[in-house]
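Work through this:
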Amino acid sequence: MEIREILELTKTKPIAEIAKEYLTIGEKPARAALKRAGCYTIVGQPGWIFDDTENPSNLDRSIYEIADEVKSEKKTILKDRANLDSNQLKYTLENAHIYRKRHSFDLDVALVKELKLHCVKQDKTLYEAVETAIQNYLTNDREDGTSV
């Protein structure tokens, strides 16, 4: 189904209903594809609108084609983030951006409870406290001349 057809349908039906009745993709992928094609919606007004500054040929494109592009892009971004080296940092002039990767390990329950209370008192997140503790440990270890 082309973007142009979906825009016509949105004048009388919400995107959730259109996705359910006419499309084989869900509401969220349909919304993402419409946005990617250059469409937007205004709260309180029925229907989606095509931005005139966008490429008019997008109106003739299939929503499935655009949804696949969005899905592929998101997948690539997530894959790139997950495959960063654990010590790779990206700095900008304004502030440092640290890419994080989720890790799972077991810790002493009493120690975690104490750390959570400490974090509440210090208005810190748990991961900030753990990162700081690890950084301090590694710094002290390097100063002592031993390596991990």
User: Anything to note?
Assistant: The first helix runs from residue 3 to 9. Residues 86-95 have pLDDT under 50 and may be disordered. The helical segments are 3-9, 15-22, 27-37, 63-82, 109-122, 126-143.
